[in-house]
Amino acid sequence: MLKRLVVLVLLVLFGPALAQAAEPAGKLTTEAIIKRTLEDRLGGIKIEAVAKTPYLGLYEVRLDGELLYTDEKMNYLFSGNIIDAKTMQNITEKRLRDLTAIKWENLPLDAAVKTVRGNGKRILAVFSDPNCPYCKRFEKDLAKVDNITIYTFLYPILSQDSHDKTRAVWCSADKSKAWNDLMLNNTVPVAARCDTPIEKNVELGRKYRVTGTPTLVFANGTRVPGAIPAEQIEKLLAQNVN
């Protein structure tokens, strides 16, 4: 992405005349012109959307799961966070959270390994790969959290061995125990064969652009990538209520 961004910056800085050349006859919105022009310059790379922001006359460009900003004439392209100086809120970060949110009701929970602790009132979904070291670190922190129901979507994206282990977990008599034994104690369950939702989980993750593990989804749809400590899990569970 970094190399592509550099190319994009060079094209924007040194090719403003191309914007006018690329503008078709008839009337198009500024957003449509920016989208079409940048896609043409980048050889057809897909820009998801362009939207005008309420600040600095900038336009938001959604590209490959990232947010970039440009001016109306496409003379400059900006990459980074925009901070509201009055509230000190990270506007870019919040916007990304909103754009990447996953509606809880859209998750096929029957395709996940279900673990209930305590009263199970709080809920959390996790996309996880058994060979991911960050997932193992996260599971150790997650084990400290009580009164929660965890839905683990087995998401083997690292290797064939990951796929084999997730199949063995799913085909175990006690899926939750098999998963916890694997992640916390390095105990690999005995290989078994059965029908699994693993391929569908991989398709689900691709649909929602889950590119790394662990990826957490909270009750209100907030997505959090990466291993976070128990204290942060507790904080987010308190904030992200249905």
Strand order of the largest sheet: 5-7-6-8-9
State which percent range the strand residues make up: 15-25%
The domain count comes to 2
Q: Could you name the ranges where pLDDT drops below 50 across 5 or more consecutive residues?
A: 1-23
Number of strands: 9
What is the 3D form? elongated
Structural class: alpha+beta
- Oligomer, anyone? single chain
CATH topology of the largest domain: Glutaredoxin
Mind telling me the C-alpha Rg?
22 Å
Order of helices and strands: HHHEEEEHEEHEHHHEEH
Q: How many angstroms does the end-to-end distance come to?
A: 35 Å
- By CATH reckoning, the class of the largest domain would read Alpha Beta
User: CATH-wise, what's the superfamily of the largest domain?
Assistant: Glutaredoxin
Q: What is the element layout, followed by pairings?
A:
Blueprint: H1 2-14, H2 16-22, H3 30-41, E1 49-52, E2 59-63, E3 66-70, E4 77-79, H4 91-100, E5 113-117, E6 122-128, H5 133-142, E7 148-154, H6 160-170, H7 175-185, H8 198-207, E8 215-218, E9 223-225, H9 230-239
Parallel strand pairs: 6-7
Antiparallel strand pairs: 1-2, 2-3, 3-4, 5-7, 6-8, 8-9
Helix pairs in contact: 6-7
Summarize the model shown.
This protein is an alpha+beta fold and 242 residues long. It has helices spanning 2-14, 16-22, 30-41, 91-100, 133-142, 160-170, 175-185, 198-207, 230-239, and strands spanning 49-52, 59-63, 66-70, 77-79, 113-117, 122-128, 148-154, 215-218, 223-225.
